């Protein structure tokens, strides 16, 4: 082991792969799963929104979201995601990744539920409320992206770090698939119980009023994996690298990582100060 490195960091880099690492992969992966589900489930119900709220009897055609409305409904979460990455990425370094990660998940739970509770006396208010909560949902997702990847990279050892991070990112594809599966399942259940008539038979009731629950349920189900991820993440300690290097608490880092890795790690307070001084550099510097 390198003599100029901290014992706790060397322990993390050289630790054998164990259940603790698998748990970290699952938790961080569930974050990416939730992100993908919340971002892509809206595209599976956007056509239904048009049928429900934008049917015009004069056209004798199924309702369809106007292009500007569709772009806002589908894309506003991506705007929030970009903003959230910048804000929560910075906050994660300042306040701690565990604390900020929990905050992003709480925000995602609240906004996923509120997205499905978007009500109003006109279609403009419903769409406006939906866009409002979708933006803040994306804001939370934007924070989850960098923090999930960072948490996994800091928990992993050198040998398996690449594979673990790839596994975490692969959960995004699983989330996209589940967005479609959940939408089809909920739609099928409602179709079996509230079968509408063909559009050429009855234009008004070809889409049953109960279909308004379908898109709401699909959006609100995105809160469930976020809530589970929050519970399990709060049971894990802050990463040893953050506790030692950023907070400057080598003793706590050694204690936390010693428990999860089931080894005894020596705390090195004096060595920590030298290590921090040698590894501090400003944004956009040559080292950065």
Automatic annotation (TrEMBL):
User: PROSITE patterns under this entry?
Assistant: MFS
| Single annotated GO MF | transmembrane transporter activity
Kindly state one GO CC term assigned in the UniProt record: membrane
Which domain of life does the UniProt lineage start with? Eukaryota
Q: Which reaction does it catalyse?
A: phosphate(in) + H(+)(in) = phosphate(out) + H(+)(out)
Membrane topology reported for the UniProt record: Multi-pass membrane protein
Where is this chain's protein located in or outside the cell? Membrane
User: Which InterPro entries would you find in this protein's record?
Assistant: MFS_dom, MFS_sugar_transport-like, MFS_trans_sf
TM regions (residue ranges): none
UniProt keyword list: Membrane, Transmembrane, Transmembrane helix
Family under the similarity heading: Belongs to the major facilitator superfamily. Phosphate:H(+) symporter (TC 2.A.1.9) family.
The protein, known as? Inorganic phosphate transporter 1-11
Q: What organism is recorded for this protein?
A: Nicotiana tabacum
């Amino acid at each position: 082991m390198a003599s100029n490195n901290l014992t706790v960091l060397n322990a993390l880099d050289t630790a054998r792969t164990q259940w603790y690492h698998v748990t970290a992969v699952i938790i961080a992966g569930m974050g990416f799963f939730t992100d993908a589900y919340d971002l892509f489930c809206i595209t599976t119900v956007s056509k239904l929104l048009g049928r429900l709220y934008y049917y015009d009897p004069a056209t004798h055609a199924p309702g369809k979201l106007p292009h500007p409305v569709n772009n806002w409904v589908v894309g506003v979460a991506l705007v929030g995601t970009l903003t959230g990455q910048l804000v929560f990425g910075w906050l994660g370094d300042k306040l701690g990744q565990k604390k900020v990660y929990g905050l992003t998940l709480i925000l995602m739970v609240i906004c996923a539920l509120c997205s499905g509770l978007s009500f109003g006396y006109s279609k403009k208010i419903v769409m406006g409320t939906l866009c409002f909560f979708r933006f803040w949902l994306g804001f939370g997702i934007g924070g989850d992206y960098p923090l999930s990847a960072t948490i996994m990279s800091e928990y992993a050892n050198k040998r398996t770090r690449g594979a673990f991070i790839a596994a975490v990112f692969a959960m995004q594809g699983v989330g996209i698939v589940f967005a479609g599966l959940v939408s089809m399942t909920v739609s099928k259940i409602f179709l079996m119980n509230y079968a509408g008539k063909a559009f050429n038979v009855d234009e008004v009731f070809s889409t049953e009023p109960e279909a308004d629950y379908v898109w709401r349920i699909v959006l609100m189900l995105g809160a469930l994996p976020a809530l589970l991820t929050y519970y399990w993440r709060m049971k894990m300690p802050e990463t040893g690298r953050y506790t030692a290097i950023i907070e400057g608490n080598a003793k706590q880092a050694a204690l936390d990582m010693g428990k999860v890795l089931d080894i005894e790690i020596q705390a090195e307070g004096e060595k920590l100060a030298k290590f921090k001084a040698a590894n501090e550099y400003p944004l956009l510097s040559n080292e950065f």
